[in-house]
## 1
Amino acid sequence: MSIISRGFRGRRRDDGGRVPPGQYLADDFPVLSAGPTPRVPLDRWEFAIDTEAEQTHRWSWEEFMALPAETPTVDIHCVTKWSKLDTTWEGVSLDVLFEDVETAAEYALVYSYGGYTTNLPLEDLLDGKAWIVHRFDGEELEPRHGGPARLIVPHLYFWKSAKWVRGIRLLNEDWPGFWETAGYHNYGDPWREQRYEGD
Amino acid sequence: MRRLAWRPAELVHAAAETETARTLRLRVPDWPGHLAGQHVDVRLTAEDGYTAQRSYSVAGPADGDLIELTVETVQDGEVSPYLTEEMRVGDQVEIRGPVGGWFVWRPESRAPVLLVGGGSGIVPLMAMIRTRRQAGSRVPFRLLYSVRDPGRRYYAEELRRPEPGLDVSYLYTRSAPEGLSRPARRIMLDDLAEGGWPASFEPDCYVCGPTGFVEAAADLLLALGHAPERIRTERFGPTGG
């Protein structure tokens, strides 16, 4: 039996079923991260995919910018309860980055400038589900939002969308990342409210 | 893995902290305890079953089944106005937690501590100050607390009482009381250089507040030579309601 909070009515909005349970719509763009914002000069930026066979695929900023870009418009959901609908980004699909990558690995550990990590099954990065983006809403991605480039994986809670992304390590075994070792759910599906360990 | 349970919580005491903030003491049967700096999720349910939930930092150590939250009213918010204006002693919400194992201070820690709080970002830092006191820790603490004006200070009485090993400095951003040499302005390098610890002391720095404040303070700490891994941040979006 659920506990009623006397006198609480709440503010209901018709979101057309696009807001997962426990989330509310934010009009601005809140920022959450665990430490200071790293600042990465573009001439020293690189993105790498390391396979389980220790083959490394690398892109400099110039090489990354020369790849075919997409401008996905997606809904995003943060575990701290805010959701934002119809956010528009510009960047490169992970399908493009994985084109020449030979792997049988099932897991990916994403790592960032500044030391952040997050894990997810590799299949959650492929087939049009994830991008490395460098623009938000037509503007260059600000450092506080993960610029120069961040991952976005809109179908999972936003902590999986690593800011200041630096690379992806492919692994045969799952390896929990920063928040996943700090009590948050290993997978993080917002529609199933997988917020914390055990949810 | 056991799911973190929602527990019924009953308001046993409430007091205005400022004109826009209220401190709530809640009784949560079987509360497992928490660390200073952790937060809880609060869930409200309307009579027709509609629910809304938000996260709030805990303001102090657990006292048996009692936990304390300080909530700032977010204008046009959905949950905070209920907690700060509507909720009366005896009313119930549900609580789940504690959550968060990163932005925490443990009494067994020996490093000096710098707390940098902006506005309602003082709440988890106050939990650290109170936990230090409760544990009888002698680790030196410094608190830099940025607020718009003196009326916005949380825990003003408690922080006025002298406490060995705790230095408190206020950084007013809009209007400062007369007689202060520091003019009202946003946090600057001097504030952290004078009110903080030298980087060579290797203090643990905890920065909490609205995004712009945390960005500025964390950047200044980096400029003063503090190692990034010693700077822990917690950012409150203005929609944290």
Note: Residues 122-135 of chain B form the longest helix (14 residues).
## 2
Amino acid sequence: MKRHLLEAADLDRADATLVLDTAAQIESALAGREVKKLPTLRGRTVVNLFYEDSTRTRISFELAAKRLSADVINFSAKGSSVSKGESLKDTALTLEAMGSDAIVVRHPSSGAPHRLAGWVRGSVVNAGDGTHEHPTQALLDAYTIRRRLGRLDGVRVAVVGDVLHSRVARSNVWLLSTLGAEVTLVAPPTLLPVGVGSWPVQVSYDLDAVLPKADVVMMLRVQLERMNASFFPSAREYSRRYGLDALRLAALGDEAVVMHPGPMNRGMEIAADVADSVRSTIVEQVANGVSVRMAVLYLLLGGASS
Amino acid sequence: MTVLIKGARVLGGDPADLLLDDGRIAAVGGRLSATGATVVDADGLVALPGLVDLHTHLREPGREDAETVETGSRAAALGGFTAVHAMANTDPVADTAGVVEQVWRLGRQSGLVDVVPVGAVTVGLRGERLAELGAMADSAARVRVFSDDGHCVADPALMRRALEYVKAFDGVVAQHAEEPRLTAGAQMNEGDLSARLGLTGWPAAAEEAVVARDVLLAEHVGARLHVCHVSTAGSVEILRWAKSRGVQVTAEVTPHHLLLTEAAAASYDPVFKVNPPLRTDTDVQALRAGLADGTIDAVATDHAPHAVEDKESEWAQARPGMLGLEQALSVVLETLVEPGLLDWAGVADRMAVRPAAIGRLDGHGRPLTPGEPANLLLLDPAARAVVDPAALASRSRNSPYAGRELPGRVVATFLRGEATVLDGKAQK
């Protein structure tokens, strides 16, 4: 493994598989234990540096670090020196001077973790940067698919919705194709990036045509602000053309699963009964997120030295 | 001051001596002599007219921590310039006779280059109503170039009025061509790479749409239009078409758009963030070809100094802009002269003669012949050096060429016969 996890596009097949296998080992090591804790990162300090609100990702990383016995500092940009104008670089150097070994960073600007990695000696984990990447989300998605379907090679994954603004979609495109899955992006043309033609994916504007062939349907959250920016005419039209409801669920093959990175807009991109159906892996994804993030922290901080 | 330059190759021709006296070129020929003259050995050096920049940000007044008229002038002189147009997006904005005269006087005080203020087209660069263009034209600064650079005059009716109005004093509107509705939040060139990096794209069409609109307006009202920092192959095509129709349009390209591509953005290092953004290799080739065939009239630096804290940040938070004055000639040497796209006369034409003509500057961009003002530079084309930002004269350090080896070294610059640079060192 490299020193940082900045993007899924950086991961080769061996490294990605190592993360997934390590997550599986960690999960089985902890299974059935009353105290869900390993001593691996005792004495190490992990900082969660969050410039954007994200309760679920922050808690997931916090839990992962704590289960590895690391000390965890949660640093929210709101109400901190950052709100007084301190730069990202100064913040990072301050945290490092206080002895952080790894910085988990969530930031609204694409590339912020890359900048950070150039300024600090410790490891940097990208917990979501702008519209760029969210590599641990893709890893936990891949982990979930592998657990459900038993494989990733040749699995047909439809990623549906606001690909243009989605770091989850980008990370999944790179990681899943590295791991041998076949990805189809499904969205209105306004929500697909101009350069999507060069990505290792199929592109479709027609959800109904894609569903019968999909092993996995990964729904993306539609942000409310897109609805007023002419990316599509109305929430109603979007929902009709690209929403996953019970009727569309029935078009899926018997083994196919439905995923969503959360938080969901129930009734918009995904119907409530679909989100709660047995096909849905949404709750499972959250649980798997902790194992995968433990694996990442372990490999970046503990694996080499232990 | 009398200066005798021995053995310079004027526009790359055969070695000749140049005698500078009383601010003018007194004689050009073989084996000249002059009693008491300062002798400059120019063996192997190329003599060119002093360069003229149509597009410099000197940051004074307002951001003297990034650059001052004096530090920017020194950088310009070291780059071989004898005149620079100082852009209007200062604080306060150069939208009144008072501010343009202030900048002009600061330039006179530094005495390193002629600082020619550009006046804002609209009050406060807000694109709402015309600034007092006539008052700026009539001021001591004699403003002839008007630009809201950094902002596009996006309102077509206002742009039409500006083009028409400046005809009264032979002015030109220099447009920053960018349709703002197409570039909201834009961070880099829109395409494969922006999609991958998750940086909002600045589509080529946002520039081309405004260039196309403006050449039609300029043709309709019979006015002079200048297009700032052209960056796309499509814009070059539109300009070629407009010129073939006889539209009074001129255009400039920056050194960085001639050398660098969007690939530099993959580092997320904001030193490469610039507006308009670095484009694709196809665009770069079209810009070089456009400059070589004269479709693009001039090289202009868009020298944009920024303080460290404005660049050492996340990409999205960083201010756009790059330093350009000190390496401009080297970049032109690398991208056009060495590949054989432009000869030395061509360099003089695109970097001195035409920019001076566009800005209606008397005394600059003149041939190196007896009787002309002694504004010239001496270049060692054989020298090569790695760019070290710490060694630059600019107060800022945001050079996109840091660590890159570039050809050519400006050995001397003369402004009206006075050496502003000698042996590669500024004289003030």
Note: Chain B is about 30% helix and 20% strand.
## 3
Amino acid sequence: MRFILRRLGFYLIAFWASITLNFLLPRFMPGDPVSRMFARTQGKMQPEQIEALRKMLGVDTRPLWEQYVDYMHNILTGQMGVSISRFPTPVTEVIASQIGWTLLLGGTALVFAAIIGNLLGILAAWRRGGAIDSALPPLLIFIGSFPYFWLAMGALYLFGVVLGWFPIRHAFTDGLEPAFTWEFIGDVGAHLVLPALTIVLVSIGGWMLGMRNTMIATNAEDYITMAEAKGLRPGRVMLRYAARNAMLPSVTSFGMSLGFVVGGAMLTEVVFAYPGVGYQLLNAVQGLDYPLMQGLFLTITAAVLLANFLVDILYVRLDPRVRSN
Amino acid sequence: MTTAILKQPTEPTEPTAARKPNRSFVHGLITNKKALVGIIVMLVFIALAFLAPVLFPGDPSRITAMASLEPSPEHWLGTTAKGQDVLALTVHGSRSSLFVGLTVGFASTFIGILVGLASAYFGKFIDEALSLVTNVFLLLPGLPLLVILAAFLPPGLGTVILVLVVTGWAGSARVLRSQALSIRSKDFVAAAVVSGERAGRIMFREILPNMASIVMGTLLGCVIYGIGAQAGLEFLGLGDVSTVSWGNNLFWAGNEGALLTGSWWVFVPSGVCIALVAFALALINYAVDEVTNPRLRKIKNPKNTERSAAK
């Protein structure tokens, strides 16, 4: 319990740091964001909106600590202001409509990469020096050297433009009404293939190598020799005895990657114009939509911190050794 | 290549770091196949970066009428939608990309050394505080933080470097701290403390030289991070779009619809260059591990080679 409370304290500090960063950045940067935004929206903004924005972005004459208290209060009560590029939609509403797509893309990619990567790792370790073990690691390291958005561009070009197998942008075909019909789900699935595939391709190497290395250590344990000596089927020894005990580090990295699901797919979302929070963050930056930008950053940070905290709790359950120290 | 890296005037540490293991280390590196390939690739890129103005004189981003040409004997890698020669853009791009990558790499490693050593040496409250800051930076989502910082700062090369260092130092600080901690507990450090040597001297003269290989590994990792992250940032249009670099080349390729018009030659070269540099640095990194860690080097028995093969 003490361990969990300590971790909770740490995550609260981390979240406080990101809120404070959000508060300080516009106040200490050169230039006046509000005038820039006002020029951009060409007078669409109401005077009281401008006033609220000035307060939010620190063009404010009150003492700094008073603004800070105000800002913290607003964030903690979920008031992140109004989006400029989608005026007058509140920031929270914009984010709520986008985050589902990010979770879908990142979650699908993470699950596939983890399952395939771990299986490959198990097989590679089980047949040391075999075809999988000698050919895949260098290949995956080389693929991992490419910027992942570049692989996304390549996949888009090859499978989308040249071969035309998959749609090349957005999460579903324009004009299609979102609904739980087979037609819509199939359409979303088709749009999901390419972006998810490129993330899987880049991250699979890490899963495979991690699993392979722990698995090799496990394979040397006495109980494996024992199981083999008992004459159990190799497949059973491999999965039930070796792989099962080598899973713990993979479970941890799975949890850690949960956090990156939200912020990690950003460039892929941009390449495929996939309507998630990453793509939205870029749009907000380009449109000088500061409230939306800050709201997105806080949401992504909160998601990352929450995921990591959940992993910590899970880890205490899985590995009693953590509790003692 | 390695000596070129070591001679950069960023750290007061290099002479001491290179002092003892120098000859056998360099010899070990150039006789290691992985390192040799990596070093040669890096040397080629560095040569290209220096020779770019000679090989392709004039402004590579000058707009001409020969738009979207396929690769041909006149334009080996074709031209962009604005009629720029892709090969010239790629060769010139190596200058900014390598420069930013190396600067970011050295600066973040330097901060990592300072924070890691101070953390390990002083311990107690200083360690707690520095570790807390490090862990917070490690946890904040890197790319979104990069984007939001870049959005608020005025665009330019300095901003890109600053932003990448701010988001990139924490990882190396953590690695270097744990290594420094184990050396901190050795007897010769205790002896130095008892004999009244100054803290700075103990940290940089006694502890740091014993971490040379891990500092080297961290440095290479940070350079790879710097090159990749710069490319990502610029691809989003958040760098200085007026400079020619691999990331900006990809940004313009995306912006001018190279993918949709089928001009694959516009976006392939810069991406391949980034990958080649990252792969070459990774190879050197594995080789440094092998050369400095005898356990990885001498083993002939395939049963025990997992670390070298896996990494």
Note: Chain A touches chain B through 56 residues (CB under 8 Å).
